[in-house]
Design a protein that fits this description.
Elements lengths: L1 E6 L3 E3 L4 E9 L4 E9 L6 E7 L4 E3 L7 E6 L4 E6 L8 E10 L3 E5 L3 E6 L1
Parallel strand pairs: 2-11
Antiparallel strand pairs: 1-3, 3-8, 4-5, 4-9, 5-6, 7-8, 9-10, 9-11
């Protein structure tokens, strides 16, 4: 079984920064990609940023030039550095992991709350 543990969510003011972390543990053989999604109240879950096993990154247009995703392959950990936070970034942020096992499987973290006030 695979577990994802997120940390770093907090209440901050607009313009401040936060760094989210997500550590994966368990039977991890081949990571395809890791990423961050978010869900605000009343909204669907949306993709924020993804990083592939080879380091290719993609971002939602709304966070480009403000957020940076990175990973530590040794620790099986993915990070999301969030700068210049805006109130519209307020959401529960979820870590997502895609593995190649016998079949391709994905896993979700429990979520961490990010709240940005004016």
């Amino acid at each position: 079984q695979v577990q994802l543990v997120e940390s770093g969510g907090a209440l901050v003011q607009a313009g401040e920064s936060l760094r989210l972390s997500c550590a994966a543990s368990g039977r991890i053989f081949s990571i395809i990609n890791m990423g961050w999604y978010r869900q605000a109240p009343g909204n669907e879950r949306e993709r924020v940023a993804v990083i592939t096993s080879s380091g290719i990154t993609t971002y939602a247009d709304s966070v480009k030039d403000r957020f940076t995703i990175s990973k530590d392959n040794v620790k099986n950990t993915v990070y999301l550095q969030m700068n210049s936070l805006k109130p519209e970034d307020t959401a529960v942020y979820y870590c997502h992991l895609v593995l190649r096992e016998v079949v391709i499987r994905d896993y979700w973290g429990q979520g961490t709350q990010v709240t940005v006030s004016l």
